[in-house]
Write a structure and sequence with these properties.
This protein has helices at 35-42, 48-65, 80-91, 108-118, 131-145, 150-167, 178-182, 196-202, 210-216, 232-238, 253-262, 287-298, 302-312, 318-328, 341-347, 352-362, and strands spanning 72-76, 96-101, 123-127, 171-174, 241-244, 335-336, 339-340. The chain is mainly alpha-helical. It folds into 2 domains: 46-247, Rossmann fold, CATH 3.40.50; 272-367, no CATH class. The strands form 3 sheets. It has a 3-stranded parallel sheet, with helices on both faces. Strands 4-5 form a two-stranded parallel sheet. Strand 6 (335-336) and strand 7 form a beta hairpin. The longest helix is centred in the first third of the chain and has 18 residues, at 48-65. The chain is globular and about 70 Å long. Mean pLDDT is 90; it is low at 3-8. Bound molecules: zinc ion.
Amino acid sequence: MSNNTFNSGKIFFCKKCIFPSTKPHIEFNDDGVCTGCLAYSNRKEINWDERQKKLLEIIKKYKKKNEGYYNCIIPSSGGKDSHYQTIKALELGMNPLIVNIVPDKISELGRHNKENLKKLGVDSMEISLNPRIRHRINKFGLETVGDICWPEHITIFTIPKKISVNMNIPLLFYGECPENENGGPLEDQDRTVLDRRWMEEYGGLLGLRTNDLSDVLQIPKEKLVLYTYPAKEELEKVGTTALFLGQFFPWDGQNNFEIAKQNGFRTYTKDVEGSIVNYENLDNVYFRVHDYFKYLKYGYDRVADWSSWHIRRGRLSRDEAVKLVKERSGKFPEVYLGYSLSEILDEIDCTRDEFIKICDKFTNKSLFVCDNKNKLVKDKDGNLIFKNSEYI
Ligand SMILES: [Zn+2]
């Protein structure tokens, strides 16, 4: 296995899917196949019955422990996976409490789907963060680590765990272990438990810590309660255990969508901007900016993600995927779900010029065409030109 070659500036692509070597945490075997593809082909060897038996044993313990009460928490965005997780938990005879975290700016579609999730027959707790503080953190995340959605990335871990501790509900069901299909180190692909180490290593926090916010932005600690992970002793006292459901059932986003759709989940009218599906990331209007920065830093975005997952499942050929990437990847995030970039920038008090400067700061120049003064070349719509689009 070799690690990615981001620092050397050379990019290559998985021989089977189209994940690039710049993708964080990805590794490749000697045949140039990524760990995401290897993990997917290894699924055939997994004894799922055995795993589900193990899950039933775990569940039994928590049902007994929390008899007459909620016996698990499902951290939720109200999306297709949250629908699937909830349906699965109900099938398993659980009494889940849904912890619904409202994004920075919620779309109408996102609101519909959050309401729909409750109709599956569950109690739902909805948490919204103080927008004055949050918008400062959005901007800080964008400026310092190139991630406008940093608040969301941390709170999907911290809030459900706080509620676990405070309401004495030890078991949490997250969805897929992202390292599995996204090609993390093989030793981490069989992890069933999401703990603090996992959150810090893979949770997309990019080295930014809640303490940094308090220090640099001078936000009082009491205003950052929901951004703070519970203390080790608190978690141990309750026995908080967060499991990835995807380690017990073969995970497939499209299949989750089909099930969600049969249960009232609504999609966008066309493929979501910057993607090749119409059923994902429908709630958070900021998401397109987040995804665009992934493209600037690593040269791939949601188009390559979904294409790669589809290739593994025989739904798309590699050539078709390359074509889709060339047509759709990396477009300047002018509009998302019908909301304009300026609406988002106004919210976080950022001008368009400032935004473009931040984009340029986070762009990996070795991946894009520059002029003879090493300045990024852009077309009339502000789109960059990717150097390595041949996918050899
Ligand atoms: Zn691959």
